[in-house]
Amino acid sequence: MHTATISYAHDDLELEGYVAHRSDAPDGLPVVLVAHAWGGLDAFAQGKAEALAALGYIGFAIDMYGKGRRGGTPEANRALMTPLVDDRRLLRDRIGAAVNEAKRLPCADPHRIAAIGFCFGGLCVLDLARAGLHGVRGVAAFHGLLSPPSIGPQAEMATKVLALHGFDDPMAPPEAVLAFAKEMTQAKADWQMHMYGGTMHAFTNPAASAPANGLQYDAVADRRSWAAMRSFLEECFRE
After folding, report:
1. pLDDT exceeds 90 at position 100
2. HSE of 72 in the Cβ direction (CA atoms, 13 Å)?
3. What is the CATH number of the domain that holds 184?
4. Predicted confidence band at 25 (pLDDT cuts at 50, 70, 90)?
5. Which residue range(s) make up the domain with 124?
6. Which positions ≥6 away from 138 have C-beta within 8 Å?
7. CB within 8 A of 112, min separation 6: which ones?
8. What integer is the mean pLDDT of 193-203?
9. Contact, 79 vs 92, CB < 8 A?
10. CA–CA distances in Å: residue 120 to residues 11, 27, 85
11. Count of domains in the chain?
12. Model pTM greater than 0.70?
């Protein structure tokens, strides 16, 4: 497997991504972006990029905060995430810069792009779908934040959407799930949601172990959600 750290930019901000693909990769491969959780680009996101590369894609773990800007504590993570959550237009433009970079990657097919995201990264990829950027076939959000950006009318969505969600996730309770379903329906999106019973936030992260705060790894939901994503990506890139 070939892996590399690359630099790209959004306006004047330098960003640092991580790219993985098979060493013998042919030209014209689909690219799958990986949007990190609230702590910033880390080994978890890089590992997901490598797992996507093993499936035959180019995995591209993106950077939403800037080169070297990483959290580590809940307070530091929140300080990095909040400016983007509060300014969803900035968030949309930041992930749009990553899409532009993905289209320029060696071996990439610029017309076959998808994205997956975890927690805060789930919100990022859902906003990417809402943006309707050319070439983005689908997004999959793992235990993502679901709230709409409220930055103007939502156009009809051509990007397919998969939301993978724990029913006991306090970050997006049932009323938020229902509001999301209504939003996607009104946007005429091709959307689906897989709900995992008895499952909390961060269910894909083996380090998550704070059930009192609604954070808990779940090996079964982790396995099921990854399998659902694989099928979803195959569908997105087959058409």
Report:
1. yes
2. 3
3. 3.40.50.1820
4. confident
5. 21-238
6. 114, 115, 129, 159, 160, 161, 162, 232, 233, 235, 236
7. 29, 30, 31, 135, 137, 236, 237
8. 97
9. no
10. 22, 32, 9
11. 1
12. yes
